[in-house]
Amino acid sequence: MKRLGIKNIGILITGDLSNPIRKSTTIIVEDGVIKKIGDEKLLVEYQCDKIIDANGITVAPGLLDSHVHPVLGDFTPRQNTTGYISSSLHGGVTTMISAGEPHTPGRPKDPSGTKALAILGKKSSQNVRPSGVKLHGGSLILEKGLVEKDFEELVNSGFLIQPEGKELAAFIKNCSFLFLTDQKSFFELLRKNQASLSAFFFWLKTQLNPELWKKMQDAISFVPDLKTELDKSESES
């Protein structure tokens, strides 16, 4: 077990909106995870392999970039750039979330191709952390022609189809691609796999401009039982 101590912190930002600044000067980290926060007495309680003197600077949680277009590891061909994820670390970004569509040259748009790209993206992002930055990548771009068997195949490959918590927003955002190509299949799939359609509709309303939202409402009208969930989301908003 490796233990790191950080002392002489000037301002400690917590990331908690209810308590944004903490009056602590020392952090103990074990194997890359924060163990304890307090004053310099912690350095007596915990024997550290290394101690960093912050010299009064501000310490904050790593920033999260929720909209990136990764291709493969730390390389993006659109800008012909290698190391862009590592460079983001210098700006304080420690976590990145794929926006859903990788900027892959010649991106496949058939079912087998889009599945392969999703699996490659997910597994490569799990296996590499440039300079320690964590990347949540490998979203499935829903293309016309995908059927339920394709989703079963992805599940068997370790691909997450029914996400929860923080990953739910990314999932339903990617689902909106199918709305543009095969609306009926999209609604049927969503109804079968999602516990709360009203939550999806509420989220979607916040993402679309009024004109597109109106088109979405019109599209829903041909699936009567979904209209109930849409009405529920409207009342909750």
Describe the structure.
This protein is an alpha/beta fold. The protein is built from nine helices and twelve strands. Helix 5 (166-179) packs antiparallel against helix 6 (183-193) and helix 7 crosses helix 9 (224-236). The radius of gyration is 22 Å and the shape is extended. The model is unreliable at 161-173 and 177-181 (pLDDT under 50).
Sketch the major β-sheet: 4 strands, mixed
Structural class computed from helices and strand pairing:
alpha/beta
Q: What is the arithmetic mean of pLDDT?
A: 78
* Poorly predicted segments: 161-173, 177-181
User: Span between N and C termini?
Assistant: 48 Å
Helix content: 40-55%
Neighbour order of strands in the largest sheet: 5-4-1-6
Give a count of the beta strands, DSSP E runs of length 2 or more.
12
Q: Name the beta content range.
A: 15-25%
